[in-house]
Design a protein that fits this description.
Layout (H helix, E strand, L loop, with lengths): L9 E11 L4 E8 L13 E6 L6 E6 L10 E6 L11 H8 L6 E8 L12 E6 L4 H10 L6 E7 L8 H6 L5 E7 L10 E2 L4 H7 L6 E5 L2 H13 L7 E4 L7 H7 L26 H8 L11 E5 L4 E5 L6 H7 L17 E11 L11 E3 L3 E9 L2
Parallel strand pairs: 7-8, 7-11, 8-9, 9-10, 11-12, 13-17
Antiparallel strand pairs: 1-2, 1-6, 2-5, 3-4, 3-6, 13-14, 15-16, 15-17
This protein binds flavin-adenine dinucleotide and FE2/S2 (inorganic) cluster (FES).
Length: 385
Amino acid sequence: MAQHQSENGFRAFRVTKKRVESDIITSFYLEPTDAGPLWTVKPGQYITLRVPVANDPVLKTYSVSSDPSDPSHYRITVKREAGFNGVPDGVGSCWLHDQVAIGDTIDIAAPRGVFCLDEDSTRPVVLLSGGVGLTPMVSMLHCLKHSARDVYFLHACENGRVHALRDEVMAQTSDRIQARFVYRMPEDVDQFDASGMIDKAFLQSTLPIDDYDVYLCGPVPFMMAMYGLLQELGVPKARIAYEFFGKAASLDQLVSKAAPVKVATKAASKAAPTVQALTFLTDPDAWAVADETPAPVQAASQGQVNFRKSDASVDWDGSANSLLELAENCGLEPEFSCRSGICNACKCTLVSGEVEYFEQPLIAPEKGKVLICCSRPKGTVVLDI
Ligand SMILES: Cc1cc2nc3c(=O)[nH]c(=O)nc-3n(C[C@H](O)[C@H](O)[C@H](O)COP(=O)(O)OP(=O)(O)OC[C@H]3O[C@@H](n4cnc5c(N)ncnc54)[C@H](O)[C@@H]3O)c2cc1C
Ligand code: FES
């Protein structure tokens, strides 16, 4: 699709529709100005927007919330991140909400991301979201409409005033596709399935006694809580895919470091759990997946990585996926954000040696610099970390 790439892989898209979805969330419909076809997008992927702030544009990523098979437009659905008590407003989201109008153009880079629906799986699917984390789930839901799989769309938010895309989700429900909404602080006019927080009993009474794929996205505390609950229910980690809407991280590490959280709000389930045994607890196939040790990363070549400033040297033996991961395994704390070659936060000086990228940077770093989140060494390298 090279003919539809502009400078640095960005293309201009026109905002053809702006739709208020809730008190704090608005959707933007985007069509390419070059009249070429949309890039292919997998259900769950995000696009990257160039936000023109002052002299230095910033890149912001938003999940595509529209039907991935719709060739006419991408839709993104954005929460306005308002500042308070002297904290400035969020740059990208407030620009979109407050300044971008129908007819305006935005530079956009092609869809990316590995938080995608596994379309080859035949297992039932649980789409579990909190707040604006429902956006990739809605895209997946549209795709699942055309499959034979059972789907459980579970969404938690404050109340009906901030609940986006509710009608669209309800319109997809069927014998096979169920949606449940849990409101933490419902208002009198709200229609919802449970109030409070999603708890273990709610999940047990809602989800199938089965082996399923889970997709999880939402605020970090929500994701940590759900990740813990799912594991208490015996869901193998390998069956839980998740995405952070902020700095990428490992839920495993976050949950293991966190102190037990006291839940101040009442739990969503009113009744005691009726389901005590879940078949996948004894399904050897499921456990085989859980017990699988990840295959070691193929080393690009054997060599040494020297972190010069930290006075640390370590062999590249394939135990880390990237130079960033290797540095972290050594106890170093280099800067990062997206961990996928988009934001350049992990850019550092390559003093000597060569690297290879297993994911191409969105904006190639200047000569002598490398992005360590998406690269591996080719032989021995020295980094200024
Ligand atoms: C893969 C991915 C997909 C995403 N998909 C979506 C999506 O579908 N919908 C969506 O709404 N978002 C999504 N996001 C989040 C989105 O990319 C932005 O991070 C989000 O919109 C906030 O960006 P911002 O520029 O508005 O805020 P920023 O300017 O980055 O600020 C973030 C927050 O910090 C506060 N803040 C600003 N300056 C300061 C300061 N000096 N001190 C303390 N606080 C400060 C702001 O008020 C704001 O609340 C996604 C993120 C990722 C990584
Ligand atoms: S962390 Fe964003 S490019 Fe490396």
